[in-house]
Amino acid sequence: MGRLNIDRPIRVIVADNDSEQQQGKAACEAIIAAGFAHPLEIVVVEQRGIAPTRNALVRQALKDPAIQWIAMLDDDEWAEPDWLAQLLRVRQQYDADVVGGPVFRVFEVPVPDYIAEANQPVFENMKTGPLDLVDATNNVLFRADLFREMPEPWFDPQYALMGCEDKDLFLGLRLKGKRFAWASEAVIREEMPASRSTVKWMLQRAYRIGNTDTIVNLKHRPPEFTVVSEATKMSGAMALALFNMTVMGWSAANRFKGARLAARVFGKVVALTGRRHEEYRVIHGS
To answer: Which of 160, 198, 207, 257 has its CA 20 to 30 A from that of 67?
Structure first.
């Protein structure tokens, strides 16, 4: 963040969600002491979970009535120097309420190509301009008044240990007619540790995404979602998954692709029965 090329004043707010050890707070205090380039504020969030942490960050930002834009990235990411300037440029060009950008993953250890591809969306196909929906907060710019126009909590606490609190918010905004845009040159890079580069972890993540995506859709009921249409899609996806794991099973890449798709379908099925998967109940790496 200290390398950002930006022509306007910014504030940096960091949330530490470990209220006992507060290692994040200690790291920020060391950065401030070393002479950080921007005003840096630290918020310690006692309630565990992603949603309470994001709510605390927004609440802190909105204490300044002059704030017009709120950008977010995750704690295991770093921004390219033009990241924020590109988000702001695209926001102005397309009069967007929300602007997203690509997150390129950098693996700690070498992984097979099919593992790397499974973890990296094909951003090359996404061009700068209007977008139907931004669905993640790991690289995003919000119009601050979006939050002022809504009651707290902005990120639903029911997703605190599940994830998908960001997609829940974005889908709600889309259904209210808010405008989204994509900034292909607003680049973020994310560290992928060895523990998140295994087949087991990726299948667990696919299961969680299937589960939480369905829970969000059941909550909001967007026009394109019905239980019947979802069941039809799941049947087709499971058939394709089985095909990849059997007929095309001679290839490790095909077996993985099939297993990953099956895991996602299973997560959806579990969600339709009313059950939830709390991925973040166990702290990653513990």
So the answer is: 160
**Residue matched to tokens 């609440």:** 59
Cross-strand partners of 180 = 98, 131
State the helix-helix crossing angle for 50-61 and 165-175, rounded to 10 degrees: 60
User: CATH top-level class for 62-196?
Assistant: alpha beta
CA 48 centroid distance within chain = 17
Model's pTM, two decimal places?
0.92
H helix or E strand, kind and range, residue 56: helix 50-61
Amino acid identity, residue 182?
A: W
Helix H, strand E, coil C: the string for 75-90 is: CCEEECCCHHHHHHHH
Q: Token pair of 267, please?
A: 């997560």
Whole-number pLDDT of residue 121: 80
The helix/strand/coil state of 273 is: coil
The closest alpha carbon to 252, from 71, 48, 18, 260, belongs to 260
Q: Mean pLDDT in each 10-residue stretch from start to end of the chain (286 residues)?
A: 85 90 90 90 92 96 96 94 97 97 94 88 88 94 97 94 94 97 96 91 94 96 92 95 91 94 96 90 62
Domain segments of the chain as ranges? 62-196, 199-281
Average pLDDT score, the chain: 93
Dihedrals phi, psi of 208, to nearest 5 degrees: -65, -40
Query: Environment class of residue 284 by beta-carbon count within 10 Å: exposed (0-12), middle (13-18) or buried (19+)?
Result: exposed
CA–CA separation, 160 and 76 (whole Å)? 18
